[in-house]
Amino acid sequence: MIEWWIFLPACFALNLAFGPNNLLAMTHGARSGVGFAQKAAFGRLLIFVPMIALSALGLGMILTGSAFVFGVVKVLGAAYLIWLGVSLWLSASSVETGQITGASASLGGAFRAEALAAISNPKAILIFAAFFPQFVDLDAYWQSYALLGASFLVMEAVAICAYASVGAFASRVASARLPLMQRVSGATMCLFGALLLISPQPSRG
C-alpha cells in the first residue's frame, strides 16, 4: 500500500524546489504570461512521462549506478544550462518593458527549452529511480508506479503554475526591471549549470 501521507508532501516539496525548470517557468511567466509558461511547460511534463516509465523498468539504475554514464549526462546537462543562461542574458535587451504577451517569445523555443532542461536534469532521474521505489507497492508494482507518476505530474503542474504566477506578478509590479530580471535568470541558470558540473554522482541509498 502506498503511504500517501508521506509521499504527497515529500514529493510536492521536490516539485517546488527551485531549479532550472522552475526558473524557466518563472522567466516565461514574467516575460510572456502564466498561460504561455504553462503551455511551454508541457515540454517538461512530456519528457517526464517516459523518464518515469524507464525508471519503472529499472533503467534508472544505469544512471545512478554508472559513473561514466552519469558523467556524460551531467556534462551535457551542465553545458546546456550554461548555454541557456547565456542566451537568456543576451536576449534581455530585446524584452520590451511592459509587454507581457506570448508574442514576445517563441512558444516552440520555450517548449524545447523546458524539455531539454528536464531531460538533462539528473535530479529528476534520481527522483524517479530512487525516490519513487521507496513508495511502490510490490504486490501491485505497475499500478502503484503509475499512480505515483501521475501524482508527481499533477503536483508538477501546480508548481509550474505557482512559479509562472510569481514571475508574472513580479513583472507587473516592476515592469521597468524586466530586462534586469531576465539577466538575473540567465546568470542563475549559468550557476545551476556550474553546480551541476561539479556535483558528485548520487547514490540510490
Q: Can you give me a brief rundown of this structure?
A:
It is built from ten helices and no strands. The chain is mainly alpha-helical. The chain has one domain.
Word description of this protein:
There is one protein chain. The protein has 205 residues and is an all-alpha fold. The protein has one domain (19-198). It is 76% helix and 0% strand. The protein contains 10 helices and no strands. It has helices at residues 4-16, 20-32, 34-40, 42-56, 60-65, 67-91, 107-119, 122-131, 141-173, 178-198. Helix 4 runs parallel beside helix 7 (107-119). It is globular. The chain starts with a helix and ends in a 7-residue tail after the last helix. The relative contact order is 0.24.
How large is the share of residues in beta strands? under 5%
Shape from CA axes?
Answer: globular
Q: Main β-sheet: number of strands, strand sense, barrel status?
A: none
Spans where pLDDT lies below 50 across 5 or more residues: 96-104
Domain count: the total is 1
- Strand-pairing-aware structural class: mainly alpha
List the helices and strands in order.
HHHHHHHHHH
Cα-based radius of gyration, to the nearest Å: 17 Å
Residue-averaged pLDDT:
81
Count helical runs. Answer: 10
Tell me roughly what share of residues is in helical segments: over 70%
Number of strands: 0
Q: How far is it from the N-terminal to the C-terminal residue, by CA?
A: 21 Å
